[in-house]
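Appendix C reproduces, verbatim, an entry submitted by the partner laboratory led by Prof. M.T., so that reviewers can inspect both the input and the predicted structure.
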Amino acid sequence: EFYASAAPQAQAAVQEAIDTLLGKLDTQWTTTAQAVAELCFKLQMTGYMLRNAEYVTALKKLLELEDQTYISLRKTFNALDSDEDGFLT
């Protein structure tokens, strides 16, 4: 859902990240500890990036945000800030 609705630049970034990760794999499965460590780190960072994108998409859907302009976000925040203290509790 995220990928299909994302901007072309975001789709290209996700595709490039996946291609880079898979490009590190040796077809004979022989590698060094350094290459495995780099791959694990990149997988973890890619996972964080994709989870964050999923989180933002879910919040936009939940809060019924049509755009992410300052005015739209401020209006939504003010509607949720029932005691007007500047925090969501």
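The chain is about 70% helix and 0% strand. Additional entries are available on request from the coordinating office.
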